[in-house]
What does this fold into?
Amino acid sequence: MWNLSYIVIPLGRLEGMFYEAQGNWQQADKVYSDILEQHPSDAVTFNYILLLLSIKVVFLPYRINV
It folds into this structure.
């Protein structure tokens, strides 16, 4: 059986990045969490979740709408 996780995980991350670029933080968080549920040892996705959390906590409260 073929192991397609090396293709599926980056595509899932790409979907999460797409939602981040749109400012849809909740959907991006859901995508990253789903990936991490299926592949708990994926350190890169874990880092994306940490970065998303830091964006939510540090940067978003000071966001100025123009």
